[in-house]
Task: structure prediction
Amino acid sequence: MAATLTVIPGIAEPRPLKPAAAPGTGLDRKSDLRALQAADLRLAGIFYRIAKANAALCQTLVPATGLILHSRSAYLGQYEEAAAELFGFEAAIGVEGVLPGSPAAAFDIPDTSSLTHIAAANVRSATTVQQALRTIEQAGSGGSVDVSLADRGRQRTLRIPTERICAGRVEAQVSATDNAGTDGQTIQVTTELMNRLPEDDQLAAVVAHEFAHIVLDHPDRLTRAGVARGLFREFGRNRRLWRQTEIEADRLSAYLMANAGYDPRAAQRFWLGAGRRVGGGLLASGTHMNARQRAAMLAREAAAIAQIEARPIMPELLTTRDMPLD
Ligand SMILES: [Zn+2]
Result:
C-alpha cells in the first residue's frame, strides 16, 4: 500500500495499453486517450459499486452523482490537442463519463461536456478534480446538486440527485509496472495491472484490498503508531504492524466484495495468478504474506461468507478500527 506511482502519459495502443515507443500520430493519440478513458470508467465503476454497497461499513459517507470527472491539465504535452478535440474542455474540468445505474445516468451527458458551475459556484477554473468533487459533495448534501455544463457552445443546468456512498476515489495510473496503492483517500491502480485482469471480479479484489485499508483507517493508524513508511518497515515492530494491516485488508476485502455482489473467490484467483507479480520486490519482503498464504486465507473467508445470506455483512474486524495499532 501507499505505493508512489508516477503518471506517464505515454501510451500507444488502445488495448492493451503499452508505453509509447515513439511519438504517435494524431490518430494514435486519440485512441490512446479513448483507451485511458475506458480504463478510468472501468475502475470507477468497480469502485462506485463497492463504495455504494458497503455504505453501512464506512465511517465517512459522501453524496455522489455518478459523474466521472477529468481535468484538462491531466493531458499535457503531446496529448493536449487531441484531448481538447475529443473532450471539448470548454472549462478546466470535463465529464469523462457517467456510471451506469448511478443518478447521473438518468440524464444524457456526453463526454464532450465541461463543468462550469456547481450550484452557485463558478468552477470554470477549478484546479483539480478533487476540488470539483468536494464542491459537489458540499452542494449535494441535501439530496441533489445543480450542475451547469457547457457542451459545444450549448449551456444547460441539470439537477442531479445524489446518493450516499463511502468516501474515497480511484485513479488509473498510466504505467508499465504492476501496482496498486492508497494514501488513505485515493486508490491508484496501474494500467498495466488492469490490462492483465480482464475479469472484473479480480480487479474488484485489488480495489477492495486497497479500499479495506481506507475503511480500516490503516494509513492514519500506522502514522499514529509511528510506523516508518520507507525502508525500515521491514524490520521488527514496523514489520509486524505492516503485516497485520495487510492481513486485515485481505480479510475485509472478501466481505467488501461479497457485499457488492462480486465473487470473493476472485481474490484467491488473483493471488494465485496475476497477483504473484504485483509490487515487484514488495511481496518478497516481510510485510506481505506470500501469495499462497494469502490465497488460502481468502479461501477461508470466502467459505465463511458463503454461509451468510444477509447483505451487507458487517464483519467483526470492523470493531478494531478505533483501536491504536500496537
Ligand atoms: Zn495492502
User: Anything to note?
Assistant: The mean pLDDT is 86. The first strand starts at residue 61 and ends at 64. Residues 26-53 form the longest helix (28 residues). The CA atoms of residues 288 and 317 lie 19 Å apart.
